[in-house]
Amino acid sequence: MDFPIVKRATPGRYLLRGLLSCGPCDELLIPSFSSSGRRYYGCPRRQCPRPWIPAEQTEQLVWAHFASTYGAAARDVPGDQRQAILTAVLARVSIGVRIADLQYHWR
């Protein structure tokens, strides 16, 4: 499914910017949003078999995994500092064809 991309995302609005990569293509995913204002991540390759993924759902999955790994320390991290924390501990997160297909590459 292709979503119409209106414009590139503004910096700081995407928790996984620069961390999320396409498993099938090994490319960094591009944060974008649709004309309805929904946020997505998508592969820059047009022929990629993985559809655009909703940013909110993916960010929640990754943060939940981080929180389960780091426990109490993760609970106290303010929302505006989460991206910096994830960038410090994750080299990248690869996503397969489905959202549930996440592989974590820790530093």
Q: How would you describe this structure to a colleague?
A:
- The chain has 107 residues and is an alpha+beta fold.
- It has one domain (7-100).
- The protein contains three helices and seven strands, in the order βββββαααββ.
- It has helices at 55-70, 72-75, 82-89, and strands at 7-8, 20-22, 30-33, 39-42, 53-54, 90-95, 102-106.
- Strands 1-3-4-5 form a four-stranded antiparallel β-sheet. Strands 2-6-7 form a three-stranded mixed β-sheet.
- Strand 6 and strand 7 (102-106) form a beta hairpin.
- The longest helix has 16 residues, at 55-70.
Considering the chains and any ligands shown, give keywords for the structure:
107 residues, alpha+beta, three-stranded mixed β-sheet, 3 helices, globular, disordered N terminus, Zn_ribbon_recom_dom, Recombinase zinc beta ribbon domain-containing protein
